[in-house]
Amino acid sequence: MGTRKGMLLVILGQALVAFLFIDARLAAQQMAPPQAAKSMVPENPSEHPAPVQPLPYSHKRHLALGLECKMCHTNPEPGKLMTFPDTTKCMQCHVAVARDKPSIKKLAEYAKSKQMIPWVRVYTVLPGVAWTHGAHLNAGVKCETCHGQVREMDTMAEVTSVTTMYACLNCHEMNHAKSACDTCHKH
Ligand code: HEC
Ligand code: HEC
Ligand code: HEC
Ligand code: HEC
Ligand code: HEC
Predict the structure, then answer these.
(1) Counting CB atoms within 10 angstroms of each CB, which of 7, 110, 161, 164 has the fewest?
(2) What is d(CA 106, CA 181) in angstroms, rounded to the nearest whole number?
(3) Binding pocket residue ranges, ligand 5, CB within 6 Å
(4) pLDDT band at 74, cuts 50/70/90?
(5) Among 77, 84, 11, which residue's Cα sits nearest to residue 54?
(6) Cα 108 from Cα 96, distance rounded (Å)
(7) What ligand is nearest to the CA atom of residue 72?
Protein backbone atom coordinates (compact mmCIF):
# COMPACT_ATOMS: atom_id res chain seq x y z
CA MET A 1 0.00 0.00 0.00
CA GLY A 2 2.67 2.44 1.18
CA THR A 3 4.90 1.77 -1.84
CA ARG A 4 1.96 2.11 -4.24
CA LYS A 5 1.07 5.48 -2.81
CA GLY A 6 4.73 6.39 -3.08
CA MET A 7 4.83 5.32 -6.74
CA LEU A 8 1.77 7.40 -7.48
CA LEU A 9 3.37 10.44 -5.91
CA VAL A 10 6.55 9.90 -7.94
CA ILE A 11 4.52 9.66 -11.18
CA LEU A 12 2.49 12.73 -10.28
CA GLY A 13 5.69 14.53 -9.40
CA GLN A 14 7.25 13.63 -12.76
CA ALA A 15 4.14 14.75 -14.62
CA LEU A 16 4.25 18.06 -12.78
CA VAL A 17 7.93 18.55 -13.59
CA ALA A 18 7.28 17.71 -17.26
CA PHE A 19 4.34 20.11 -17.31
CA LEU A 20 6.36 22.95 -15.77
CA PHE A 21 9.23 22.27 -18.16
CA ILE A 22 6.97 22.49 -21.24
CA ASP A 23 5.27 25.55 -19.81
CA ALA A 24 8.61 27.29 -19.24
CA ARG A 25 9.73 26.45 -22.79
CA LEU A 26 6.52 27.82 -24.26
CA ALA A 27 6.91 31.00 -22.22
CA ALA A 28 10.53 31.37 -23.40
CA GLN A 29 9.42 30.93 -27.02
CA GLN A 30 6.73 33.54 -26.65
CA MET A 31 9.12 35.99 -25.01
CA ALA A 32 11.94 35.53 -27.53
CA PRO A 33 12.02 38.42 -30.02
CA PRO A 34 11.19 37.52 -33.61
CA GLN A 35 14.24 36.47 -35.67
CA ALA A 36 14.05 39.60 -37.82
CA ALA A 37 14.37 41.93 -34.82
CA LYS A 38 17.46 40.04 -33.66
CA SER A 39 19.42 40.61 -36.85
CA MET A 40 18.12 44.11 -37.65
CA VAL A 41 21.54 45.57 -36.88
CA PRO A 42 24.41 43.06 -36.97
CA GLU A 43 27.22 43.17 -34.43
CA ASN A 44 30.40 44.96 -35.39
CA PRO A 45 32.67 42.20 -36.72
CA SER A 46 35.82 44.39 -36.52
CA GLU A 47 37.82 44.97 -33.36
CA HIS A 48 36.18 47.78 -31.46
CA PRO A 49 38.12 48.85 -28.38
CA ALA A 50 36.47 51.67 -26.43
CA PRO A 51 38.32 54.95 -27.02
CA VAL A 52 40.07 56.54 -24.04
CA GLN A 53 37.74 59.27 -22.80
CA PRO A 54 38.67 62.41 -20.86
CA LEU A 55 36.73 61.04 -17.86
CA PRO A 56 35.92 57.40 -16.96
CA TYR A 57 32.14 57.84 -17.38
CA SER A 58 30.24 54.53 -17.09
CA HIS A 59 26.77 54.05 -18.61
CA LYS A 60 26.32 50.84 -16.62
CA ARG A 61 26.96 52.52 -13.30
CA HIS A 62 24.81 55.59 -14.01
CA LEU A 63 21.87 53.77 -15.62
CA ALA A 64 21.77 51.44 -12.59
CA LEU A 65 20.81 54.56 -10.61
CA GLY A 66 17.55 54.64 -12.62
CA LEU A 67 18.50 57.50 -14.96
CA GLU A 68 16.91 57.57 -18.43
CA CYS A 69 18.71 58.18 -21.72
CA LYS A 70 16.76 61.38 -22.31
CA MET A 71 18.18 63.00 -19.17
CA CYS A 72 21.49 63.32 -21.04
CA HIS A 73 20.64 62.73 -24.73
CA THR A 74 17.89 64.89 -26.24
CA ASN A 75 16.91 65.15 -29.89
CA PRO A 76 16.54 68.88 -30.60
CA GLU A 77 15.28 70.26 -33.95
CA PRO A 78 15.98 69.45 -36.73
CA GLY A 79 16.29 65.98 -35.15
CA LYS A 80 19.67 64.86 -36.44
CA LEU A 81 21.65 64.72 -33.18
CA MET A 82 21.11 63.15 -29.75
CA THR A 83 23.69 65.57 -28.22
CA PHE A 84 25.92 65.16 -25.15
CA PRO A 85 24.98 66.49 -21.71
CA ASP A 86 26.13 69.79 -20.31
CA THR A 87 28.36 69.54 -17.24
CA THR A 88 25.57 71.16 -15.18
CA LYS A 89 23.63 67.86 -15.58
CA CYS A 90 26.56 65.96 -14.11
CA MET A 91 27.08 68.47 -11.32
CA GLN A 92 23.47 68.01 -10.13
CA CYS A 93 24.86 64.98 -8.33
CA HIS A 94 28.59 65.50 -8.35
CA VAL A 95 28.62 68.73 -6.34
CA ALA A 96 28.33 66.20 -3.55
CA VAL A 97 28.73 62.62 -4.93
CA ALA A 98 32.32 61.35 -5.00
CA ARG A 99 33.62 64.95 -5.00
CA ASP A 100 37.00 63.90 -3.59
CA LYS A 101 37.76 61.42 -6.40
CA PRO A 102 40.32 62.67 -8.95
CA SER A 103 37.93 62.09 -11.88
CA ILE A 104 35.23 64.17 -10.22
CA LYS A 105 37.70 66.95 -9.42
CA LYS A 106 38.50 67.01 -13.14
CA LEU A 107 34.77 67.08 -13.93
CA ALA A 108 34.34 70.03 -11.56
CA GLU A 109 37.12 71.88 -13.39
CA TYR A 110 35.37 71.43 -16.75
CA ALA A 111 32.15 72.65 -15.12
CA LYS A 112 33.83 75.67 -13.55
CA SER A 113 35.41 76.74 -16.85
CA LYS A 114 32.07 76.14 -18.62
CA GLN A 115 33.80 73.96 -21.21
CA MET A 116 32.05 71.07 -22.92
CA ILE A 117 33.87 67.85 -22.04
CA PRO A 118 35.78 66.80 -25.18
CA TRP A 119 34.25 63.29 -25.43
CA VAL A 120 35.77 61.11 -28.14
CA ARG A 121 33.08 60.08 -30.64
CA VAL A 122 32.23 56.38 -30.92
CA TYR A 123 29.72 56.10 -33.81
CA THR A 124 30.11 58.27 -36.92
CA VAL A 125 28.39 58.07 -40.28
CA LEU A 126 30.47 58.98 -43.33
CA PRO A 127 30.10 62.76 -43.88
CA GLY A 128 27.67 63.53 -46.70
CA VAL A 129 25.38 60.56 -46.02
CA ALA A 130 21.88 61.72 -45.05
CA TRP A 131 21.36 60.66 -41.44
CA THR A 132 18.91 61.71 -38.75
CA HIS A 133 17.92 60.20 -35.40
CA GLY A 134 14.49 61.85 -35.56
CA ALA A 135 12.96 59.71 -38.34
CA HIS A 136 14.12 56.55 -36.54
CA LEU A 137 12.83 57.54 -33.11
CA ASN A 138 9.48 58.50 -34.69
CA ALA A 139 9.36 55.07 -36.32
CA GLY A 140 9.79 53.51 -32.85
CA VAL A 141 13.33 52.13 -33.32
CA LYS A 142 14.94 51.68 -29.89
CA CYS A 143 18.38 53.05 -28.92
CA GLU A 144 19.52 49.51 -28.06
CA THR A 145 18.69 48.19 -31.54
CA CYS A 146 21.40 50.43 -33.02
CA HIS A 147 23.76 50.92 -30.05
CA GLY A 148 23.59 47.54 -28.28
CA GLN A 149 23.18 46.81 -24.56
CA VAL A 150 24.22 50.25 -23.31
CA ARG A 151 23.01 49.41 -19.79
CA GLU A 152 25.71 46.74 -19.52
CA MET A 153 28.58 48.92 -20.74
CA ASP A 154 31.20 50.35 -18.41
CA THR A 155 32.92 51.88 -21.42
CA MET A 156 31.16 52.85 -24.65
CA ALA A 157 32.41 51.06 -27.76
CA GLU A 158 31.16 50.64 -31.31
CA VAL A 159 29.54 47.26 -30.69
CA THR A 160 27.22 47.30 -33.72
CA SER A 161 27.81 47.91 -37.41
CA VAL A 162 25.02 50.50 -37.64
CA THR A 163 27.20 53.05 -39.46
CA THR A 164 27.75 50.77 -42.46
CA MET A 165 25.64 50.98 -45.61
CA TYR A 166 24.82 47.28 -45.32
CA ALA A 167 23.30 47.74 -41.86
CA CYS A 168 21.24 50.77 -42.97
CA LEU A 169 19.93 49.03 -46.08
CA ASN A 170 19.28 45.71 -44.36
CA CYS A 171 17.04 47.29 -41.76
CA HIS A 172 15.32 49.55 -44.29
CA GLU A 173 14.44 46.55 -46.40
CA MET A 174 13.14 44.56 -43.41
CA ASN A 175 10.95 47.49 -42.39
CA HIS A 176 9.85 48.49 -45.89
CA ALA A 177 11.47 51.90 -45.36
CA LYS A 178 12.80 53.77 -48.43
CA SER A 179 15.88 52.10 -49.93
CA ALA A 180 16.50 54.07 -53.14
CA CYS A 181 20.04 55.49 -53.32
CA ASP A 182 18.85 59.11 -52.95
CA THR A 183 17.24 58.31 -49.57
CA CYS A 184 20.73 58.53 -48.09
CA HIS A 185 22.83 60.05 -50.90
CA LYS A 186 21.48 63.44 -51.90
CA HIS A 187 22.93 65.29 -54.84
C1 HEC B 1 24.00 60.73 -16.97
C2 HEC B 1 24.13 60.99 -18.38
C3 HEC B 1 23.89 59.91 -19.41
C4 HEC B 1 22.83 59.04 -19.50
C5 HEC B 1 21.66 58.88 -18.56
C6 HEC B 1 23.03 58.30 -20.73
N7 HEC B 1 24.17 58.70 -21.34
FE8 HEC B 1 24.89 58.07 -23.15
N9 HEC B 1 26.52 59.26 -22.94
C10 HEC B 1 26.77 60.09 -21.86
C11 HEC B 1 28.11 60.62 -21.96
C12 HEC B 1 28.79 61.55 -20.96
C13 HEC B 1 28.67 60.12 -23.17
C14 HEC B 1 30.08 60.35 -23.73
C15 HEC B 1 31.06 59.41 -23.07
C16 HEC B 1 30.98 57.99 -23.58
O17 HEC B 1 30.99 57.77 -24.81
O18 HEC B 1 30.90 57.07 -22.74
C19 HEC B 1 27.64 59.26 -23.76
C20 HEC B 1 27.78 58.57 -24.96
C21 HEC B 1 26.80 57.77 -25.53
C22 HEC B 1 26.91 57.12 -26.82
C23 HEC B 1 28.09 57.20 -27.77
C24 HEC B 1 27.86 58.31 -28.81
C25 HEC B 1 29.03 58.50 -29.76
O26 HEC B 1 28.89 58.15 -30.93
O27 HEC B 1 30.09 58.98 -29.33
C28 HEC B 1 25.76 56.42 -27.00
C29 HEC B 1 25.41 55.55 -28.19
C30 HEC B 1 24.94 56.61 -25.83
N31 HEC B 1 25.58 57.45 -24.95
C32 HEC B 1 23.71 56.03 -25.63
C33 HEC B 1 22.97 56.13 -24.46
C34 HEC B 1 21.75 55.39 -24.22
C35 HEC B 1 21.11 54.43 -25.21
C36 HEC B 1 21.32 55.72 -22.96
C37 HEC B 1 20.11 55.17 -22.21
C38 HEC B 1 20.01 53.70 -22.16
C39 HEC B 1 22.26 56.69 -22.43
N40 HEC B 1 23.25 56.88 -23.36
C41 HEC B 1 22.18 57.32 -21.18
C42 HEC B 1 25.91 60.36 -20.83
C43 HEC B 1 24.73 59.69 -20.57
C1 HEC C 1 21.88 61.03 -10.56
C2 HEC C 1 23.19 61.35 -10.05
C3 HEC C 1 24.37 61.37 -11.02
C4 HEC C 1 24.48 62.08 -12.20
C5 HEC C 1 23.45 62.98 -12.87
C6 HEC C 1 25.82 61.82 -12.69
N7 HEC C 1 26.48 60.98 -11.83
FE8 HEC C 1 28.38 60.29 -12.05
N9 HEC C 1 28.14 59.09 -10.44
C10 HEC C 1 27.03 59.06 -9.63
C11 HEC C 1 27.24 58.05 -8.59
C12 HEC C 1 26.24 57.69 -7.49
C13 HEC C 1 28.52 57.51 -8.82
C14 HEC C 1 29.23 56.42 -7.99
C15 HEC C 1 30.05 57.12 -6.95
C16 HEC C 1 30.91 56.19 -6.13
O17 HEC C 1 31.11 55.05 -6.52
O18 HEC C 1 31.44 56.66 -5.12
C19 HEC C 1 29.07 58.21 -9.98
C20 HEC C 1 30.34 57.98 -10.48
C21 HEC C 1 30.93 58.73 -11.48
C22 HEC C 1 32.31 58.62 -11.91
C23 HEC C 1 33.34 57.69 -11.33
C24 HEC C 1 33.98 58.30 -10.12
C25 HEC C 1 35.17 57.44 -9.69
O26 HEC C 1 36.30 57.80 -10.08
O27 HEC C 1 34.93 56.41 -9.04
C28 HEC C 1 32.49 59.50 -12.94
C29 HEC C 1 33.77 59.77 -13.71
C30 HEC C 1 31.22 60.15 -13.15
N31 HEC C 1 30.29 59.68 -12.25
C32 HEC C 1 31.00 61.11 -14.11
C33 HEC C 1 29.77 61.66 -14.39
C34 HEC C 1 29.50 62.53 -15.53
C35 HEC C 1 30.53 62.95 -16.56
C36 HEC C 1 28.19 62.88 -15.47
C37 HEC C 1 27.42 63.71 -16.44
C38 HEC C 1 27.45 63.28 -17.82
C39 HEC C 1 27.63 62.23 -14.29
N40 HEC C 1 28.61 61.49 -13.67
C41 HEC C 1 26.32 62.35 -13.86
C42 HEC C 1 25.91 59.84 -9.75
C43 HEC C 1 25.63 60.67 -10.80
C1 HEC D 1 18.51 53.59 -36.38
C2 HEC D 1 19.71 53.52 -35.57
C3 HEC D 1 19.86 54.41 -34.37
C4 HEC D 1 18.99 54.59 -33.32
C5 HEC D 1 17.61 54.01 -33.15
C6 HEC D 1 19.65 55.44 -32.37
N7 HEC D 1 20.89 55.80 -32.84
FE8 HEC D 1 22.23 57.00 -31.94
N9 HEC D 1 23.43 56.97 -33.56
C10 HEC D 1 23.20 56.20 -34.69
C11 HEC D 1 24.19 56.53 -35.71
C12 HEC D 1 24.26 55.93 -37.10
C13 HEC D 1 25.04 57.52 -35.13
C14 HEC D 1 26.20 58.26 -35.79
C15 HEC D 1 25.60 59.57 -36.36
C16 HEC D 1 26.53 60.61 -36.89
O17 HEC D 1 27.64 60.32 -37.36
O18 HEC D 1 26.15 61.80 -36.81
C19 HEC D 1 24.53 57.76 -33.78
C20 HEC D 1 25.08 58.68 -32.89
C21 HEC D 1 24.63 58.87 -31.58
C22 HEC D 1 25.22 59.80 -30.62
C23 HEC D 1 26.38 60.74 -30.86
C24 HEC D 1 26.11 61.83 -31.86
C25 HEC D 1 24.85 62.65 -31.69
O26 HEC D 1 23.85 62.32 -32.34
O27 HEC D 1 24.84 63.65 -30.97
C28 HEC D 1 24.53 59.65 -29.45
C29 HEC D 1 24.77 60.39 -28.15
C30 HEC D 1 23.48 58.67 -29.69
N31 HEC D 1 23.57 58.22 -31.00
C32 HEC D 1 22.56 58.27 -28.73
C33 HEC D 1 21.37 57.59 -29.04
C34 HEC D 1 20.26 57.42 -28.12
C35 HEC D 1 20.22 57.88 -26.68
C36 HEC D 1 19.28 56.77 -28.81
C37 HEC D 1 17.87 56.42 -28.37
C38 HEC D 1 17.07 57.55 -27.86
C39 HEC D 1 19.79 56.51 -30.15
N40 HEC D 1 21.05 57.04 -30.26
C41 HEC D 1 19.10 55.84 -31.15
C42 HEC D 1 22.19 55.28 -34.85
C43 HEC D 1 21.06 55.18 -34.05
C1 HEC E 1 17.02 49.31 -37.14
C2 HEC E 1 16.48 49.76 -38.40
C3 HEC E 1 17.13 50.90 -39.15
C4 HEC E 1 18.48 51.16 -39.29
C5 HEC E 1 19.65 50.40 -38.73
C6 HEC E 1 18.57 52.35 -40.10
N7 HEC E 1 17.32 52.79 -40.45
FE8 HEC E 1 16.90 54.50 -41.48
N9 HEC E 1 14.92 54.21 -41.17
C10 HEC E 1 14.36 53.12 -40.56
C11 HEC E 1 12.93 53.30 -40.47
C12 HEC E 1 11.93 52.31 -39.88
C13 HEC E 1 12.66 54.57 -41.03
C14 HEC E 1 11.32 55.29 -41.13
C15 HEC E 1 10.60 54.94 -42.38
C16 HEC E 1 9.29 55.72 -42.50
O17 HEC E 1 8.97 56.53 -41.63
O18 HEC E 1 8.65 55.48 -43.52
C19 HEC E 1 13.94 55.11 -41.47
C20 HEC E 1 14.08 56.34 -42.09
C21 HEC E 1 15.28 56.86 -42.57
C22 HEC E 1 15.41 58.10 -43.30
C23 HEC E 1 14.30 59.06 -43.65
C24 HEC E 1 13.75 58.61 -44.97
C25 HEC E 1 12.67 59.52 -45.48
O26 HEC E 1 13.00 60.41 -46.27
O27 HEC E 1 11.52 59.34 -45.08
C28 HEC E 1 16.76 58.24 -43.60
C29 HEC E 1 17.42 59.38 -44.37
C30 HEC E 1 17.44 57.09 -43.05
N31 HEC E 1 16.51 56.28 -42.43
C32 HEC E 1 18.79 56.86 -43.16
C33 HEC E 1 19.46 55.82 -42.50
C34 HEC E 1 20.91 55.64 -42.53
C35 HEC E 1 21.89 56.53 -43.26
C36 HEC E 1 21.16 54.54 -41.76
C37 HEC E 1 22.50 53.92 -41.42
C38 HEC E 1 23.55 54.82 -40.97
C39 HEC E 1 19.88 54.03 -41.28
N40 HEC E 1 18.88 54.83 -41.77
C41 HEC E 1 19.75 52.93 -40.47
C42 HEC E 1 15.02 52.03 -40.05
C43 HEC E 1 16.40 51.92 -39.89
C1 HEC F 1 19.71 53.64 -45.99
C2 HEC F 1 20.84 54.45 -46.37
C3 HEC F 1 21.59 54.17 -47.64
C4 HEC F 1 21.09 53.86 -48.88
C5 HEC F 1 19.62 53.68 -49.26
C6 HEC F 1 22.21 53.76 -49.78
N7 HEC F 1 23.37 54.01 -49.09
FE8 HEC F 1 25.24 54.11 -49.92
N9 HEC F 1 26.02 54.50 -48.06
C10 HEC F 1 25.31 54.60 -46.91
C11 HEC F 1 26.23 54.77 -45.80
C12 HEC F 1 25.87 54.90 -44.33
C13 HEC F 1 27.53 54.80 -46.35
C14 HEC F 1 28.85 54.94 -45.60
C15 HEC F 1 29.34 53.57 -45.27
C16 HEC F 1 30.61 53.51 -44.46
O17 HEC F 1 31.12 54.52 -43.96
O18 HEC F 1 31.12 52.38 -44.33
C19 HEC F 1 27.37 54.61 -47.79
C20 HEC F 1 28.41 54.58 -48.69
C21 HEC F 1 28.28 54.47 -50.07
C22 HEC F 1 29.37 54.52 -51.01
C23 HEC F 1 30.86 54.68 -50.71
C24 HEC F 1 31.19 55.93 -50.02
C25 HEC F 1 31.03 57.20 -50.81
O26 HEC F 1 30.02 57.93 -50.56
O27 HEC F 1 31.88 57.49 -51.64
C28 HEC F 1 28.84 54.38 -52.26
C29 HEC F 1 29.55 54.39 -53.58
C30 HEC F 1 27.38 54.20 -52.08
N31 HEC F 1 27.10 54.28 -50.74
C32 HEC F 1 26.49 54.01 -53.11
C33 HEC F 1 25.14 53.73 -52.96
C34 HEC F 1 24.21 53.35 -54.04
C35 HEC F 1 24.61 53.23 -55.49
C36 HEC F 1 23.00 53.18 -53.47
C37 HEC F 1 21.70 52.73 -54.14
C38 HEC F 1 21.77 51.40 -54.73
C39 HEC F 1 23.13 53.45 -52.04
N40 HEC F 1 24.43 53.76 -51.76
C41 HEC F 1 22.09 53.42 -51.12
C42 HEC F 1 23.93 54.56 -46.78
C43 HEC F 1 23.04 54.27 -47.79
Answers:
(1) 7
(2) 46
(3) 125-126, 129, 163-165, 168-169, 172, 179, 181, 183-185
(4) very high
(5) 84
(6) 11
(7) 1
